[in-house]
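cron nightly-structures :: item 1 of 1
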Amino acid sequence: MTARWLTLLLCLAGALTHAQDGGVTPAPTTVAVDFTQLPPATWTELEVLTLEKKVLVRLVQDGFAVMAKDAGAMVRLTVSRRENTLVLGASTCAREQTTDVPLGAAPLGELHLEVAQRLAALARRCAPPPDEPRPPTSGDAPAPAAPPPSKGLRLGGSMGFFFRAGGTDPVLRAAVRYGRTLGVEVTAGLVLSGVTEVTVFEVPVLVALSLHLDLGKGFALEAALAAGVFVHTFLLADPARTDRAGVRVDVMASLPVTLSFSPLSWGGIGLRVAPSLVSGVHPRGGWTRGLASVEACGLAFLKF
Protein backbone atom coordinates (compact mmCIF):
# COMPACT_ATOMS: atom_id res chain seq x y z
CA MET A 1 0.00 0.00 0.00
CA THR A 2 1.42 3.37 -0.99
CA ALA A 3 2.06 6.13 1.50
CA ARG A 4 -0.69 8.25 -0.03
CA TRP A 5 -3.33 5.56 0.44
CA LEU A 6 -2.13 5.01 4.00
CA THR A 7 -2.47 8.73 4.65
CA LEU A 8 -6.03 8.79 3.36
CA LEU A 9 -6.96 5.86 5.59
CA LEU A 10 -5.45 7.64 8.58
CA CYS A 11 -7.49 10.75 7.75
CA LEU A 12 -10.68 8.72 7.57
CA ALA A 13 -9.96 6.95 10.83
CA GLY A 14 -9.15 10.24 12.55
CA ALA A 15 -12.39 11.83 11.37
CA LEU A 16 -14.43 8.93 12.72
CA THR A 17 -12.93 9.35 16.21
CA HIS A 18 -14.74 12.68 16.61
CA ALA A 19 -18.16 11.05 17.04
CA GLN A 20 -19.09 11.13 20.73
CA ASP A 21 -21.14 8.54 22.61
CA GLY A 22 -24.79 9.50 22.95
CA GLY A 23 -24.61 12.34 20.44
CA VAL A 24 -22.87 13.77 17.38
CA THR A 25 -20.33 16.58 17.50
CA PRO A 26 -20.71 19.60 15.22
CA ALA A 27 -19.31 19.14 11.72
CA PRO A 28 -15.51 19.64 11.79
CA THR A 29 -13.74 22.37 9.86
CA THR A 30 -12.68 21.05 6.46
CA VAL A 31 -9.16 21.79 5.22
CA ALA A 32 -7.22 21.07 2.07
CA VAL A 33 -3.43 21.13 1.71
CA ASP A 34 -1.77 22.09 -1.56
CA PHE A 35 1.94 21.26 -2.09
CA THR A 36 1.84 21.70 -5.87
CA GLN A 37 3.48 25.14 -5.73
CA LEU A 38 6.79 23.58 -4.64
CA PRO A 39 9.36 23.16 -7.44
CA PRO A 40 10.21 19.56 -8.46
CA ALA A 41 13.69 19.66 -6.95
CA THR A 42 12.27 20.56 -3.55
CA TRP A 43 10.11 17.43 -3.50
CA THR A 44 13.24 15.30 -3.50
CA GLU A 45 15.34 17.58 -1.30
CA LEU A 46 12.75 17.89 1.49
CA GLU A 47 11.03 14.50 1.04
CA VAL A 48 7.70 16.24 0.50
CA LEU A 49 5.71 12.98 0.33
CA THR A 50 6.73 12.19 3.90
CA LEU A 51 6.06 15.80 4.91
CA GLU A 52 2.58 15.63 3.36
CA LYS A 53 1.76 12.50 5.35
CA LYS A 54 2.86 14.10 8.64
CA VAL A 55 0.88 17.29 7.92
CA LEU A 56 -2.30 15.38 7.17
CA VAL A 57 -1.99 13.21 10.27
CA ARG A 58 -1.41 16.29 12.44
CA LEU A 59 -4.47 18.04 11.00
CA VAL A 60 -6.65 14.99 11.69
CA GLN A 61 -5.29 14.76 15.22
CA ASP A 62 -6.25 18.41 15.75
CA GLY A 63 -9.85 17.71 14.72
CA PHE A 64 -9.88 18.87 11.10
CA ALA A 65 -11.49 16.98 8.23
CA VAL A 66 -9.01 16.78 5.35
CA MET A 67 -10.36 17.07 1.79
CA ALA A 68 -8.94 17.17 -1.71
CA LYS A 69 -7.69 20.61 -2.71
CA ASP A 70 -10.45 21.11 -5.29
CA ALA A 71 -13.35 19.85 -3.13
CA GLY A 72 -14.35 23.22 -1.64
CA ALA A 73 -12.75 22.99 1.82
CA MET A 74 -13.41 25.77 4.33
CA VAL A 75 -9.66 26.41 4.82
CA ARG A 76 -7.05 26.04 2.09
CA LEU A 77 -3.46 25.50 3.21
CA THR A 78 -0.56 26.06 0.79
CA VAL A 79 3.16 25.37 0.91
CA SER A 80 5.52 27.20 -1.47
CA ARG A 81 9.23 28.07 -1.54
CA ARG A 82 11.02 31.41 -1.76
CA GLU A 83 14.78 30.88 -1.93
CA ASN A 84 15.77 29.29 1.41
CA THR A 85 12.36 29.76 3.02
CA LEU A 86 9.17 27.74 3.01
CA VAL A 87 6.10 30.01 2.81
CA LEU A 88 3.07 28.52 4.55
CA GLY A 89 -0.35 30.03 3.84
CA ALA A 90 -3.95 29.61 4.95
CA SER A 91 -6.96 31.22 3.28
CA THR A 92 -10.75 31.22 3.52
CA CYS A 93 -13.49 33.32 1.94
CA ALA A 94 -12.88 36.11 4.45
CA ARG A 95 -9.26 35.96 5.61
CA GLU A 96 -5.73 34.97 4.66
CA GLN A 97 -2.57 34.43 6.74
CA THR A 98 1.03 33.38 5.98
CA THR A 99 4.09 32.43 7.94
CA ASP A 100 7.69 31.60 6.96
CA VAL A 101 9.83 28.61 7.93
CA PRO A 102 13.56 29.11 7.18
CA LEU A 103 15.43 26.19 5.65
CA GLY A 104 18.63 25.60 7.64
CA ALA A 105 20.76 22.76 8.85
CA ALA A 106 18.03 21.21 11.02
CA PRO A 107 17.23 17.53 10.32
CA LEU A 108 14.33 16.84 8.01
CA GLY A 109 12.35 15.25 10.82
CA GLU A 110 12.44 18.47 12.85
CA LEU A 111 11.56 20.53 9.75
CA HIS A 112 8.59 18.28 9.00
CA LEU A 113 7.37 18.57 12.58
CA GLU A 114 7.63 22.37 12.56
CA VAL A 115 5.81 22.67 9.20
CA ALA A 116 3.01 20.39 10.41
CA GLN A 117 2.61 22.33 13.67
CA ARG A 118 2.56 25.71 11.92
CA LEU A 119 0.06 24.60 9.29
CA ALA A 120 -2.24 23.25 12.00
CA ALA A 121 -1.92 26.55 13.89
CA LEU A 122 -2.73 28.52 10.71
CA ALA A 123 -5.79 26.34 10.12
CA ARG A 124 -7.02 27.00 13.68
CA ARG A 125 -6.59 30.76 13.32
CA CYS A 126 -8.33 30.87 9.95
CA ALA A 127 -11.12 28.41 10.74
CA PRO A 128 -14.34 30.24 9.79
CA PRO A 129 -17.40 30.41 12.02
CA PRO A 130 -20.19 27.95 11.12
CA ASP A 131 -22.21 30.54 9.18
CA GLU A 132 -19.38 31.68 6.91
CA PRO A 133 -19.79 30.45 3.29
CA ARG A 134 -17.21 28.05 1.94
CA PRO A 135 -15.19 29.01 -1.15
CA PRO A 136 -16.88 28.19 -4.46
CA THR A 137 -15.41 25.46 -6.63
CA SER A 138 -15.93 24.35 -10.20
CA GLY A 139 -17.89 21.32 -8.98
CA ASP A 140 -20.01 23.31 -6.54
CA ALA A 141 -21.41 26.17 -8.58
CA PRO A 142 -23.92 28.35 -6.74
CA ALA A 143 -27.51 27.75 -7.73
CA PRO A 144 -29.03 30.57 -9.80
CA ALA A 145 -31.21 32.93 -7.85
CA ALA A 146 -34.88 32.14 -8.17
CA PRO A 147 -36.87 34.86 -9.96
CA PRO A 148 -39.14 36.90 -7.71
CA PRO A 149 -42.70 35.59 -7.67
CA SER A 150 -45.14 37.30 -9.99
CA LYS A 151 -47.72 39.58 -8.41
CA GLY A 152 -50.31 38.15 -10.78
CA LEU A 153 -50.81 41.37 -12.79
CA ARG A 154 -50.81 41.08 -16.58
CA LEU A 155 -51.18 43.80 -19.20
CA GLY A 156 -51.81 42.79 -22.79
CA GLY A 157 -52.87 43.88 -26.23
CA SER A 158 -54.23 41.97 -29.20
CA MET A 159 -55.03 42.43 -32.85
CA GLY A 160 -57.10 40.18 -35.09
CA PHE A 161 -60.43 39.73 -36.82
CA PHE A 162 -64.08 39.86 -35.79
CA PHE A 163 -66.15 37.38 -37.81
CA ARG A 164 -69.83 38.39 -38.06
CA ALA A 165 -72.73 37.21 -40.20
CA GLY A 166 -72.32 40.07 -42.68
CA GLY A 167 -68.52 40.08 -43.03
CA THR A 168 -65.13 40.19 -41.33
CA ASP A 169 -63.77 43.27 -39.53
CA PRO A 170 -60.43 44.13 -37.91
CA VAL A 171 -60.45 44.34 -34.11
CA LEU A 172 -58.05 45.82 -31.56
CA ARG A 173 -58.24 44.95 -27.87
CA ALA A 174 -56.50 45.86 -24.59
CA ALA A 175 -56.71 43.70 -21.46
CA VAL A 176 -55.77 43.80 -17.79
CA ARG A 177 -55.80 40.61 -15.73
CA TYR A 178 -55.14 40.12 -12.01
CA GLY A 179 -54.68 36.73 -10.43
CA ARG A 180 -52.59 33.63 -10.94
CA THR A 181 -54.65 30.46 -11.35
CA LEU A 182 -58.05 32.11 -10.89
CA GLY A 183 -58.18 35.72 -12.01
CA VAL A 184 -60.33 38.65 -13.06
CA GLU A 185 -59.79 40.21 -16.48
CA VAL A 186 -61.14 43.49 -17.91
CA THR A 187 -60.95 44.00 -21.67
CA ALA A 188 -61.89 46.83 -24.02
CA GLY A 189 -61.86 46.57 -27.82
CA LEU A 190 -62.54 48.48 -31.00
CA VAL A 191 -64.14 46.87 -34.07
CA LEU A 192 -63.86 48.88 -37.30
CA SER A 193 -66.65 48.04 -39.74
CA GLY A 194 -69.00 49.43 -42.37
CA VAL A 195 -70.02 49.46 -46.03
CA THR A 196 -70.40 52.23 -48.59
CA GLU A 197 -73.63 53.56 -47.07
CA VAL A 198 -72.63 53.40 -43.40
CA THR A 199 -69.54 53.46 -41.17
CA VAL A 200 -69.72 51.43 -37.97
CA PHE A 201 -67.56 51.50 -34.85
CA GLU A 202 -68.25 48.93 -32.12
CA VAL A 203 -66.67 48.88 -28.66
CA PRO A 204 -66.94 45.71 -26.54
CA VAL A 205 -66.13 46.24 -22.83
CA LEU A 206 -66.12 42.98 -20.86
CA VAL A 207 -65.33 41.70 -17.37
CA ALA A 208 -64.26 38.04 -17.20
CA LEU A 209 -63.58 35.39 -14.59
CA SER A 210 -60.74 33.28 -16.00
CA LEU A 211 -58.96 30.03 -15.13
CA HIS A 212 -55.23 29.79 -15.94
CA LEU A 213 -53.64 26.33 -16.34
CA ASP A 214 -49.87 25.85 -16.78
CA LEU A 215 -49.08 23.21 -19.42
CA GLY A 216 -45.31 23.21 -18.85
CA LYS A 217 -42.32 24.52 -20.83
CA GLY A 218 -43.79 28.04 -20.86
CA PHE A 219 -47.16 27.08 -22.37
CA ALA A 220 -50.45 27.85 -20.65
CA LEU A 221 -54.15 27.50 -21.42
CA GLU A 222 -56.72 29.97 -20.18
CA ALA A 223 -60.52 29.79 -20.36
CA ALA A 224 -62.87 32.54 -19.25
CA LEU A 225 -66.51 33.49 -18.87
CA ALA A 226 -67.02 37.14 -19.84
CA ALA A 227 -69.95 39.53 -19.88
CA GLY A 228 -70.36 43.24 -20.46
CA VAL A 229 -71.62 45.86 -22.87
CA PHE A 230 -71.29 46.15 -26.64
CA VAL A 231 -71.46 49.78 -27.78
CA HIS A 232 -72.59 50.14 -31.39
CA THR A 233 -72.09 53.51 -33.12
CA PHE A 234 -72.92 54.30 -36.75
CA LEU A 235 -72.65 57.13 -39.25
CA LEU A 236 -74.72 57.03 -42.48
CA ALA A 237 -73.21 58.44 -45.67
CA ASP A 238 -76.48 60.22 -46.68
CA PRO A 239 -76.30 63.74 -45.21
CA ALA A 240 -80.05 64.21 -45.67
CA ARG A 241 -80.99 61.56 -43.16
CA THR A 242 -82.21 62.93 -39.84
CA ASP A 243 -81.10 59.76 -38.06
CA ARG A 244 -77.74 59.81 -39.76
CA ALA A 245 -75.70 58.99 -36.59
CA GLY A 246 -76.51 57.13 -33.43
CA VAL A 247 -75.34 54.98 -30.55
CA ARG A 248 -76.85 51.72 -29.34
CA VAL A 249 -75.76 49.75 -26.25
CA ASP A 250 -76.27 45.99 -26.11
CA VAL A 251 -75.39 43.20 -23.70
CA MET A 252 -72.57 40.87 -24.74
CA ALA A 253 -71.48 37.46 -23.39
CA SER A 254 -68.33 35.66 -24.49
CA LEU A 255 -66.30 32.49 -23.83
CA PRO A 256 -62.67 33.38 -24.71
CA VAL A 257 -60.00 30.66 -24.79
CA THR A 258 -56.32 31.62 -24.91
CA LEU A 259 -53.22 29.54 -25.61
CA SER A 260 -50.10 31.42 -24.54
CA PHE A 261 -46.34 30.89 -24.64
CA SER A 262 -44.23 32.67 -22.04
CA PRO A 263 -40.52 31.70 -22.26
CA LEU A 264 -39.55 34.75 -20.20
CA SER A 265 -40.60 35.62 -16.66
CA TRP A 266 -41.84 39.07 -17.71
CA GLY A 267 -43.99 38.43 -20.79
CA GLY A 268 -45.18 36.27 -23.66
CA ILE A 269 -47.38 35.87 -26.72
CA GLY A 270 -50.50 33.90 -27.53
CA LEU A 271 -53.55 33.14 -29.64
CA ARG A 272 -57.09 33.93 -28.53
CA VAL A 273 -60.46 32.68 -29.85
CA ALA A 274 -63.68 34.07 -28.40
CA PRO A 275 -67.18 33.07 -29.54
CA SER A 276 -69.74 35.69 -28.46
CA LEU A 277 -73.43 36.55 -28.36
CA VAL A 278 -74.84 40.10 -28.56
CA SER A 279 -78.38 41.09 -27.65
CA GLY A 280 -78.94 43.47 -30.60
CA VAL A 281 -78.35 43.30 -34.37
CA HIS A 282 -79.04 46.87 -35.75
CA PRO A 283 -78.95 46.30 -39.55
CA ARG A 284 -78.87 49.49 -41.60
CA GLY A 285 -77.58 50.80 -44.94
CA GLY A 286 -76.67 47.34 -46.25
CA TRP A 287 -74.67 46.51 -43.14
CA THR A 288 -75.67 43.68 -40.82
CA ARG A 289 -74.34 41.67 -37.89
CA GLY A 290 -75.92 38.57 -36.47
CA LEU A 291 -76.38 37.80 -32.80
CA ALA A 292 -73.42 35.38 -32.84
CA SER A 293 -69.84 36.26 -33.74
CA VAL A 294 -66.31 34.90 -33.29
CA GLU A 295 -63.15 36.84 -32.56
CA ALA A 296 -59.69 35.41 -33.39
CA CYS A 297 -56.51 37.35 -32.66
CA GLY A 298 -52.86 37.21 -31.75
CA LEU A 299 -51.78 38.83 -28.51
CA ALA A 300 -48.75 39.93 -26.53
CA PHE A 301 -48.56 40.64 -22.80
CA LEU A 302 -46.35 41.77 -19.94
CA LYS A 303 -46.37 40.21 -16.45
CA PHE A 304 -45.72 42.02 -13.20
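cron nightly-structures :: done
The chain is about 15% helix and 50% strand.
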